[in-house]
Design goal:
With 297 residues, the protein is an alpha/beta fold. It folds into two domains: 232 residues, 3-Layer(aba) Sandwich (Rossmann fold); 50 residues, no CATH class. Helices cover 32% and strands 27% of the residues. It has ten helices and 13 strands. Strands 7-6-5-8-9-12 form a six-stranded mixed sheet, sandwiched between helices. Strands 2-4-3 form a three-stranded antiparallel sheet, covered by helices on one side. A two-stranded parallel sheet has the order 1-13. The chain is elongated.
């Protein structure tokens, strides 16, 4: 399976189910455009926030003349600027995600489209960056509710990539020097370089992080037994394995270690975390991180 039909990703009902959800940032980085998020800037907005002393070069229009008349002090009124929160969607398109039936890539692309729709509905900007062994730009950051269908079209055109290399992909993304925002990484996080390489590549990111893990129950408890030849679906390498109960126990221990390390990083980094069961509907699972309809970053 190389690409997906847009109708598999998008229906009016699918997008309508997202209309009550919203991503809210405690603060967003300066340099954006007017939107609905609170900026670290204090400027000419409408919501009063604070006073500060006048400095040469400040705008005279911000001086509070009432305080000057009463106290003889020259101070400025500071108002909270409202700007956009950039959302950067890093979507895993490794070959392995397109091989199952149904492919877990469908759940991944639906999750990406859902997050994009939520942000676009609230005037934030969205960029989409597929990755496998490297990262590319599918959609540069842009805004507007009318872009949802465009992004659905673009996501439906995504092709299966090669092997998984999250560290290289993150390095490429960070090299773009984009304005600080929320980076949502949609992946199963199965990287042949190991979970250490994944967490190491993310720990110093300038951005807020949301990790969306694509998983199945059989990831931890595979329904296999006996003499098997296992084939790496990305590299093509093979391994003869005798699957016994003790081998399955060791496998589950290794999987739990992987999972605990990934979640431990999320907690230490104060990142967002969402596990998507690819065999279930995406939207109800996505809604679980939106307390009373809001996800705060």
């Amino acid at each position: 399976m190389n690409s997906l039909n847009k109708d598999e990703l998008f229906t009016p009902e699918f997008l309508q189910s997202l209309s009550s959800l919203r991503i809210i940032a405690n603060r967003v980085a300066r340099g954006g455009r007017y939107a609905e998020q609170r900026s670290v800037d204090m400027g000419s907005g409408t919501d009063f926030r604070d006073f500060r002393s006048y400095s040469p070069g400040d705008d005279f229009r911000s001086i509070d003349w009432n305080i000057y008349q009463r106290l003889g002090r020259v101070v400025l009124k500071l108002y909270e600027e409202l700007e956009d929160l950039p959302l950067y969607l890093l979507v895993d398109t490794s070959k392995s995600l397109f091989l199952e039936t149904p492919p877990r890539a469908i759940a991944g692309l639906r999750s990406a489209l859902a997050l994009a729709a939520i942000s676009l509905n609230h005037h934030d900007s969205v960029g989409i960056y597929p990755f496998s062994n490297d990262l590319t730009t599918l959609v540069p950051p842009q805004s507007g509710k009318g872009r949802i269908l465009f992004m659905a079209d673009r996501l439906a055109q995504v092709q299966a990539g090669g092997t998984t290399d999250i560290a290289t992909s993150i390095k490429r993304f960070e090299s773009y020097g984009l304005r600080q925002g929320l980076v949502a990484i949609v992946s199963d996080f199965f990287d042949p370089n190991g979970v250490d390489a994944v967490t190491e590549s993310l720990k110093n990111s300038r951005h807020r992080l949301l990790l969306v893990q694509l998983s199945k129950k059989t990831d931890r408890d595979p329904d296999v037994q006996g003499e098997l030849q296992l084939v790496d679906c990305e590299s093509g390498s093979t391994e003869d394995v005798s699957v016994t109960d003790s081998v399955k126990t060791k496998y589950r221990e290794a999987y739990d270690k992987f999972q605990n390390q990934l979640i431990g990083f999320v907690q230490t980094r104060r990142a967002g975390w969402l596990s998507i069961d690819v065999e279930q509907e995406v939207v109800p699972q996505l809604a679980s991180i939106f307390e009373r309809g809001v996800y705060t970053v």
